[in-house]
Amino acid sequence: MTKTIKISKKRRTLLKEALDRYLLSFDAVSRVQNDAVVFPRRYRSRPDQELIGILSALFAFGRVASFSSFLEELFHRLSPSPSKWLKTSSRKEIVGLSTDLRYRWVGKGEISRLLLGLQQCLSDHGTLEGAFRAGDVLSGGEESDYKQALSFLVDQLEPQGRRATFAGEVTKSYRNLLAHPERGSACKRLNLFLRWMIRPDDGVDLGLWKGFPLDRLVVPLDTHVRRVCGHLGLISGTSNRWNTAVSITEALKTIDGDDPVRLDFALCHLGMSGVCPTRVSRDACAVCPLVCACTTGKRITRSRRADSPPGSRAP
Q1: Pairwise CA distance, residues 312 & 235, whole Å
Q2: pLDDT, average across residues 72-79
Q3: pLDDT tens, 268-293?
Q4: Is the pTM of this model over 0.85?
Q5: Cα(305)–Cα(315) distance, rounded to whole angstroms?
Q6: Contact at 8 Å (CB) between 110 and 171?
Q7: Which distant-in-sequence residues (6+ apart) come within 8 Å of 166 by Cβ?
Q8: Which domains does the chain have, with CATH numbers?
Q9: What is the rounded CA–CA span in Å between residue 127 and residue 83?
Q10: How far is residue 170's CA from residue 164's CA, in Å, rounded to a whole number?
């Protein structure tokens, strides 16, 4: 079980200052070039950015070079205007486009189903924002996060009843690709997509969807973010579930109550880059930019046994 840990005012200040310094050490251009958001930022029309955004986010798993290569090929086939092509293409054309495409465990069936689901969603709601906003209206628009609105959007891409037959069976692989908050998933990639759409344009996020409060966004949780947050003393527990993502977001709200998810990049990059390695060590912690506010880092750097092999004695 994961729970949010109370953080003293002093530690909140230290964390905010350390995270802000780390974020400022990256310029927007370098951040974008190593992030899946590079793809929607290539397009100028809002419908194309939105469509390319959700496809880029959903396939942003595995090695960057691998998913980038797959997305380059997919978007080449959808060019020059992906949204226009999708809206005007027949089912046969969409299935044909996906025939020889595959990325890891996602095959042509899942890809064509996703494209057909997106096509149906755009037909029903005009835009993905329209579907998301409709879901938020149904929830009353007063929830502490966007779980209900996101669930509604996912349902539009995983239709039930009569419409469920338009692309065949919903496979396990498709459900893994298109995670659902109601099934407990942390929905890392979908929350990443929401961050791109809702946070204002800062050179990384796009800020296409207006009027959605930033403090309702949920951090895109992966193993890197969860591990780093555990070291920082923001959470306890080791699960990567929706409730864990919410707990981390609530902890980040104590640091930045208006825009907690802006800190996501710093937390994720600390883990992905190896600055905060899976196996902690005194040397790594000593040079970490967050060591001044990290509970694990302080303990490791102060411990004489930090780097001693199991069963040995520190000198």
Answers
A1: 31
A2: 96
A3: 888 888 889 888 889 999 999 888 88
A4: yes
A5: 9
A6: yes
A7: 91, 116, 120, 159
A8: 1-33+219-315 (1.10.1670.10), 35-216 (no CATH)
A9: 10
A10: 8
